[in-house]
Design a protein that fits this description.
The chain contains 12 helices and 16 strands. The chain is of the alpha/beta class. It has 2 domains: 173 residues, Aspartate Aminotransferase, domain 1 (Alpha-Beta Complex); 247 residues, Aspartate Aminotransferase, domain 2 (3-Layer(aba) Sandwich), CATH 3.40.640.10.
Amino acid sequence: MSTKNSESLFARSKAVSPGGVHSPVRAFKSVGGTPVFFERSEGAHLWSVEGKQYIDFCQAFGPMLLGHRDPEVAAAVHKIVDQAWSLGACEPFSLELAEFLTSRVKCLETVRFVSSGTEAVMSALRVARGATGRNKILKFDGCYHGHVDSMLVKAGSGLAGEVAADSAGVSNAQETLVAPLDDEAAVEAIFKARGAEIAGVILEPLPANYGLIIQRKEFILKVMELAKQAGALVIFDEVISGFRVHPEGMAGILGVKPDLVTYGKIVGGGFPLGAFGGRRDLMDFVAPQGPVYQAGTLSANPVSVTAGITTLKKVERENVIEKTNQKTEDFARAVNAKFSEAGFPWQVISFGSLFWIHPKTDRPIRRLSDIPAVHREGFPKFFHAALELGVYLAPSAFEVGFISYAHTDEILKLAVDRLGQAAQKALA
């Protein structure tokens, strides 16, 4: 068997890495089959080790708003690599990105760079606890905040907010309370029972890690109101939505100012970078200014921050967010028309430049219980039909798709046709 073959490479990988992968969803466990090994990317496309070209709607799970290896970003990265890699000292590169972010995002008065979205969330939670002197964090069922121990919990039963660990090895699950999305009464009950213990409420203002579960503005405003009344902080996890749906993320769309906010993905232009920030008085709790310790050898890595600032400048200059948002809306409409033609009882919903494919429903999906039971078992058929036709979707029924600036009208038209054919194959 050729070594230039996904099947043989996966067999080798399983011998040296858990499950053969370095992040679980890559293993195709929820869709079945052998994962495709890719060796090249450019724009809206990926190429497998077998040499097959795919239209990519995963886009590294969101960071590639400009598409893979954008030429302008690539040139800036090549230049900085010849100048500095990792300094472990003060440097001007992260300063430029910090000034850019704080001058454009109203809720971001000061910012600290880290190396991932998970690390940003972990740090923001520590700030919330340090600033309030409280220990509990309230999160929402269906929102994902990285693999921080206290966030790997799911809703339990019985007492308001009771939780159970969602992973083996989690020892501090009881630090977290869980509420259902789209349920003001449940959130109010938790605050009534436990409000004095809650340091902060963390939520994805656009939940996009368990499908695209678009929330009512009224619900988010009510959560913020209840938190404020209880003296708890509001943390927006904008790792996915930040700099994609709006120049100020969901905070900008909603017209609100959370106390703290976390970023990742696009802020690093495809390189490892995360950030957390918010109100100056809260961020002043962070060392060396204050008693909340946070540090990182690779924090504000020159290559990552250079990719980030170059990406965000181009996004702003070329009005990328508005253009990709419109492309995504048009794409969803066209795919839905193809599904209808094929008699395929599924639909595409979108928000900004994110989309999600799921069985048709008679009302919007606002919480996990609204997701049709047939979704999990039906998606693998559609996924593999699309894969065979050269369209790469995220290999999970509950991951969203992303459209980039590099997805031209021609590429999207071809993708629409192929997804229509995939619908026919899935039905057969």
